[in-house]
Structures are given as C-alpha cells and as structure tokens.
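Thread: quick sanity check before group meeting

JM: Hey all, I'm pulling together slides for Thursday and realized we never actually wrote out the predicted structure for the chain we discussed last week. Dropping the sequence here so it's in one place. If anyone has concerns about the input, flag it before I start.
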Amino acid sequence: MTAYLDGPIAIDLHISLDGPGDLATRIHRRILDAILDGRLRPGERLPPTRELARRLDVSRNTVSVAYERLTAEGLLVARVGSGTFVGRAPVGRPRDVPEGHAARPRPIWDVPARPPNAGSASFPYDFRVGTPDPDLFPLPVWRRLLTAEWRAATVRTTGYGDPAGHHGLREAVARSTGLSRSVRASADDVLVTQGAQQALDLIGRVLIEPGDTVAVEDPGYPPARHLFRTHGARVTPVPVDREGLDVNALPDGARLVYVTPSHQFPLGTPMSLARRAALLDWAGRHDAVIVEDDYDSEFRFSDRPLDPLQSLDRTGRVIYVGTFSKTLLPMLRVGFLVAPASLRPALRAARQLTDWHGDPATQGALARFIDSGELPRHIRKATRTYAARHELIAEALTGDLAAWLDPVPSTAGLHLCALLKPDAPVDVPAVLLRARELGVAAEDLTNYCDDVRRPGIVLGYGAIPTDRVRTGLALLARSFNDV
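JM (edit): ok, ran it. Output follows.
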C-alpha cells in the first residue's frame, strides 16, 4: 500500500504491510528503511498518525507505536503544534545483496561512464577541450523562441513525433549546412539526434555486427572508439599525419571508418583533398561506410574549408554527423546526421526503438533560431571571440612555450594542439599536474592516443575568458620550468 507523506514537497512512500511481526513493527521497519536509504530526508514531515492510519487502514494506536519507537531511536522528532519530522541524518546503508549474486554488465561496460571534464573542480584558467563559452549564448533570444514553442496548441498535440525529428529543424539544418558547409541534403536526408554521440550510436546499431572491424583515427576521439566497441566491433587505430588519416594503413576488412576531416580531433589539421579522394575511393573498393564527424568547424579563422567528404561522395558511402553542442550549448542535446537514402529507413527505425524522438519544443525553437538568422549571427560573434583566444595561444606556443612545444597548425575549432619537442627533458603528466596546482587545466595528448603514444598538450579555449588566457599560459610555462 502507498502512503503519501506530507512535507515541504509531497513524497510518495510505499509502505508494505506484508512480512513478519505485528503491524506496528512492519510500519516501523518500512519508515526506518526509507530514512536509512535516503528516501526520507532530515526535516521532512510525516503525516499525522490519524491520517496515516486511515491511508493504511489500521488503527491509529498502531501507527502511534511505530512513531514512538522511531522517536525513541532518535530518527523522528515530534514538535508540538507542528507535527512529526525526520530527525538527524543516519549513516546510509547499502542494500543487502548476497556476495556473487548481483547482476553484472558485459565486461566492456564494467567501467563507470565519465562525462567530459568530470571528476575535477573548476579552474581559474580552464584550457580543457570540448566546451563552448556559455556567456556567448544568446539567452534572451533563446528564451523568447522556446517560450513561443510552448504554446497551448503545441502542448495539446497528441501522439509521438517523427523519429527523424522536427520537420522544420530538418529543413533548416539542410539549408544552413548546404550554405555554410556545402553539404548536399534535403530535409528527408536529415535525422535529428540527441547530440553527435547518439548519431554515432544509431550508426553503430544499424551498421555494425559483432566482430566487424571499425577503423578510427589515432589520436582520435575516445568516446567514439568506446561506443563502437560496445556494439561488438573490433576497433583498429589508424595513424594520422599532417594530411589526415593514412588511407594506406586502413585494414582491408573495415566495415566502417570514423574520421574528423575538417578539424582532426585532437590534432586540429584538416584532411587534404588528395586524402579525401583516396578515402572515398578506398571505401568504394572495400564496400565500407565513412562516418564524417564535423563537430566544430563552424568556427574558422582563415579561408573557407575544403568541401566535406559528404559533398564529394557520389556512391552513397558517407554519413555526415554534426552537432549544436559546440556552436550553442551541450545542454541542448541536439545533433544530426545526414545519411544516404539507402540507410535512412534503418536509421529512423533505430531512433524510434531507442528513444523515439527528442524534445519537440527545443527542436522547434532551434528551427526558428536558424531560420531567423540568429545562428549565423551568433557564429560570427563567437568566431571573433574564439579567434582572439586562438591567436593568444598561437603566440605563446611560438614564444614562452616554444622551448618545449611545437604547435600543430590549425585554423578552426575550439582547441589547439602542440607536440612535445623530442629534446624537451620534461614529463607532460608532471607538467600538467603542476599546472593544476597553479589553477591551470589543460589536456594530455596521450589521453587521445591508442596505438602510438604522442607526448603533447591540447589547449581548449572555449571555456576560458579572453582576459585570462595570457596569465594562464604564463602559469603553464612556469609549470614546465618547475618540473
């Protein structure tokens, strides 16, 4: 039976009257369990004995006995004229599970998920990668557009939405990526996802059989590697040089090739046109699919980028993946993929079977944001800010940090990479540890490597205010001197 315990916030507490002992003992045990498990928290008010007795269909005296025992144990506090409240916070206890009998995941899942930048405090000089500047987000405009989506007429709409996503957003994505990135797509080609990571997951569900080989860049994006492995793939790292993925090193039996050609993650170099052509030719000859992750190339500080693989593809081999997590905010959880016609039905079915569709209000607001011209306006403004930070870091890499680091050329995105000079007598992890003691957070390049360990540092500039960049880099240089 369920009893609703009244407090500052109504609490639904299940009190079962089954089990050994008299009724008062059973009620005592259920409330005790709720307090020890943390479901009832200190300061929350229990219902009067008469009310709880009525809900449980027992005598008031039975409930009073249970309350009195809990009060004597110091777990409840009776306040005259106010009621009975949960008292001090006891030490919680784990559920009793016999050793060796608990459910276990597959071995590949036997590691806790670790969100980006998790497990560490905020830093005054934050050069970690993957985070845009939230202060640049046009919150007043977004609030107005989102409010417009939450009209009564929208809320009254019944049924589930299209697994491919909001049609207006799909049209807006097709049009905007066509103009800004030369992606060839109509609304029918676009599938809206909960960020790029869900797009990769859907691709894996549709294309990967257990035992299939998936080729990934090395160094590369660890969450993609891990995700493909959870689908049973044999993930093979392929080296990257100054022109991008080494096509000659691709394994013959690869079913899928995952690349970041516009702004290689994490090195930052674009894939050359010759390599793009070679990769497309290779995919055609080996019946493979290319996943092109274009995660942050909207922010460019020089010439127009090379055309994406998707626009060069003439045989339906490329799936283009994009995200708004870098251009806007990660919390919006909106990404998309552009798929060949041969894969669209399967990808839509996979989306329907996983979570059906995303948030219609957010997707509708984003469609309005793009169609009104707010997105390109925001990108232009953000690009100016990021370009200034990019320039400051580039200057330091050829100045104060030049004794230890060689910058990797990059003209886009939200981070820069620098390789440790072969003759630099320092240990990068020790440098980064010392930097954190000084309030500076940066990334170790080897964290993104699989087969070949390249010592170096990755410096993001989305999260750090421009006026802190110079000081942060000076402290990083000091860290090199200190170790």
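AS: nice. Residues 6-10 have pLDDT under 50 and may be disordered. DSSP finds 15 helices and 19 strands in the chain.
JM: adding both to the slides.
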